[in-house]
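Need residues for this backbone.
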């Protein structure tokens, strides 16, 4: 029988926002984090364009795609002020859409997380690629028993690809999703969930730009053009009777044309709720066509749009640029598409460009503490869950909220010697 050298109270897979925040808030526990990358918090460093938008003043379940009751239960444990207080030594600016950005940058946000985690006694093992995990039994002396006996203590065994093994009484999966592959994204969280018979909703890119089909190839001629617009997308949800409802949802903000299609904040938020089908863009949300009717100027001059866009729109619609009153009825119909331009995206820019992953570990299998009911001591927190927030600090806040909730649960447990 093999001898176990150490059994941690808490073993965390993933040194990202959720994993580090959990470690930083644990007290009186032996804690270790296993991180695939050679350094911790790579995605934190990239968040908010390097300025790290850690939270939002308007945190609410309506800003998330996922089970509303589960999300509400998690969010009630952490207010935006709690997040700012945790990072109290740093200064944050509240900017548009009520986001809080770190004045000195994401590097300092990560620095606080690492410092607090180490102050709690956490060991961080970087460059450890986890292969799998299972639950075993250990006796009081720490010997693995191959034959299961109900009177023995259950622990988790985590196996790395290089053969190293780690043991813990509580195992927390905070490994994130598949977005930002270049930053070392991993599907190990999904694999561990499935090995314990937990359902995983198919992961998909979210907060990502749309590619376009042939009819919208004219978008590509506008690469670099950016302006405010409003996007409508039909969202599927379920009511109290578990019946699927389809409701339109609107997202206001900048849109950005690229060589691949269309992106920008409004598009990214729409991508979170889009499920293959039509979307509609109002290119002039604050403009009345009556203004154009009264003007004798060319349409491209009257419209509150970049002239480059207006001319390309008219060219794609096979229209000349002239005063609105000179257009015929069939031509006016084409112009009015500016206020409800419907099209079906070909797809998205993919995981390489996605800021987050939607889909993931089924929250129906978890309790209020993000613990799996079928295996005591097994927890899933953060982006690995089938909960995804909109752009604006919502995803980092959710990761922190999951961690804060679980920290309270684990801190309440009486520590037992290893």
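Answer:
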């Amino acid at each position: 029988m093999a001898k176990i050298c150490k059994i941690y109270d808490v073993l965390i897979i993933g040194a990202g926002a959720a994993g580090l925040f959990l470690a930083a808030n644990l007290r009186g526990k032996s804690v270790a984090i296993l991180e695939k990358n050679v350094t911790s918090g790579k995605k934190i460093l990239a968040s908010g364009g390097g300025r790290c938008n850690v939270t939002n003043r308007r945190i609410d379940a309506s800003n998330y795609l996922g089970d509303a009751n589960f999300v509400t239960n998690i969010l009630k444990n952490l207010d935006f002020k709690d997040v700012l207080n945790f990072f109290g030594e740093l200064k944050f600016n509240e900017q548009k859409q009520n986001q809080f950005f770190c004045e000195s940058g994401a590097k300092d946000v990560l620095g606080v997380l690492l410092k607090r985690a180490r102050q709690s006694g956490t060991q961080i093992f970087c460059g450890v690629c986890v292969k799998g995990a299972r639950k075993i039994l250990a006796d009081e002396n720490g010997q693995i028993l191959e034959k299961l006996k109900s009177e023995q203590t259950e622990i988790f065994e985590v196996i790395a690809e290089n053969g190293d093994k780690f043991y813990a009484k509580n195992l927390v999966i905070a490994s994130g999703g598949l977005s930002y592959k270049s930053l070392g994204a991993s599907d190990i969280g999904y694999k561990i969930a499935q090995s314990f018979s937990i359902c995983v909703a198919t992961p998909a890119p979210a907060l990502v730009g749309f590619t376009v089909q042939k009819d919208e190839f004219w978008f590509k001629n506008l690469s670099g053009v950016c302006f405010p617009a409003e996007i409508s997308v039909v969202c599927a949800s379920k009511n109290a009777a578990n019946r699927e409802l389809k409701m339109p949802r609107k997202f206001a903000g900048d849109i950005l044309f690229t060589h691949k299609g269309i992106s920008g904040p409004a598009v990214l938020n729409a991508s979170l709720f889009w499920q293959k089908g039509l979307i509609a863009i109002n290119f002039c949300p604050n403009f009345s066509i009556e203004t154009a009717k009264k003007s004798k100027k060319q349409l491209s001059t009257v419209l509150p749009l970049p002239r480059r866009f207006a001319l390309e729109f008219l060219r794609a619609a096979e229209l000349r640029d002239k005063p609105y009153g000179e257009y015929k009825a069939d031509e006016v119909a084409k112009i009015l598409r500016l206020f409800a331009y419907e099209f079906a995206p070909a797809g998205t820019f993919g995981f390489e460009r996605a800021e987050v992953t939607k889909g993931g570990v089924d929250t129906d299998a978890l309790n209020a503490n993000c613990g799996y009911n079928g295996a005591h001591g097994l927890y899933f927190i953060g982006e690995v869950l089938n909960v995804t927030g909109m752009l604006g600090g919502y995803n980092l806040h959710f990761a922190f909220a999951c961690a804060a909730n679980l920290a309270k649960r684990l801190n309440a447990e009486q520590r037992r010697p290893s």
